[in-house]
Amino acid sequence: MIQRQEYLNQLISGREKQIIKVVTGVRRCGKSTLFTLYIDYLKSTGVSEEQIVSINLEDVEHEELLNYKALYDYVKERLCKDKNTYVFIDEVQNCKSFEKAVNSLFIKPNVDVYITGSNAYMLSGELATLLSGRYVTIDMLPLSFKEYCESTSSAGKTIRENFNDYLRFGSFPYVAIIERSDKVVIPYLDGIYSTILLKDVAKREGITDVSLLENIIKFVAASVGSPISTKKISDTINSSGRKISVNTVEHYLRALTDSYIFYKVERYDIKGKQHLKTLGKYYLVDSGIRNLLLSTSSSDLGHMIENVVYLELLRRGSKVNIGKLYEKEVDFVASDMNGRTYYQVAATVLDESTLNRELEPLEKIADNYPKILLTLDDIGPGRNFAGIRHLNLLDWLQKGEP
Question: Where's the AAA domain (predicted)?
């Protein structure tokens, strides 16, 4: 198993605190494995087997626990007296009214509750109401490039070869350890995509026209890194002979972001210091899924690496926006408790006109927050343009630094 140390540390820091730990993220991003790693950690600290109750509600073995009362009774019977019991419930949203069981277990003494879910229902205002605000979320993504390079399948390959694999086959943990070939990876990714499409989106949202939903998915996937509006999507689909309203497009897009297959990023007016609701961008949770859906080419490399940078900024705990400055755009404005950092992302800036185009928006920003240009160019330790740091993307991904 690939060690997901940053996520593991978050679970460790919440151990035995009076709060429900909720791990969310797209299917197959490693939530169940994270529980396994954490259980191993608990055992290494002296926790006994009888103190651990672990249930996966996608396993047919636990089918009878899809009723909240049965789930509660099952766990209650296994609680230890006078010492902590650690309760792990995987894919808890499969149990109707699960919150009744979870809340009842939570209020019992010496019970430490951990749950996972593959739908943003787990993050919604509904959840805050259902769990009475007594929870903390750990938002999990597929592998970072650094984690990907730590897998056994990466051994013996150059960092650029591994990055090419990362872009082509994606970052789901299982992909990192199996044979990296189309014949092996494509069926696996297709299974993940189909499950998300049918189970997490269509079934949950009551969408019957799955082919229309797929049209929207492919349109948005092809538009990664480009400003997009629901009206544009609606007009494009209507022009092809299918009929769909702007409201329906909005409903479908919300369902897709709820299932963590897409992330919506709003624009931020840097000068006016306000968020803008129009012409946001969407990024996809995994480049392998994008390649499964589309016939991509090397000319799309800029948008693909932009997608990688966006997800990496999320992993590092930033709130991310698209920057707008007059008529110029800054790819990302990443904010955290320490302030903000501005990023431009490009495949290459060896051409002087391209370099000037990428630097110009950053040069116009009047404040003194860090400004970084990320490219695939081999530039050694990096360059500096009047305070703007030019870094190699692969080094930046590997080092985990701002």
Answer: 20-149
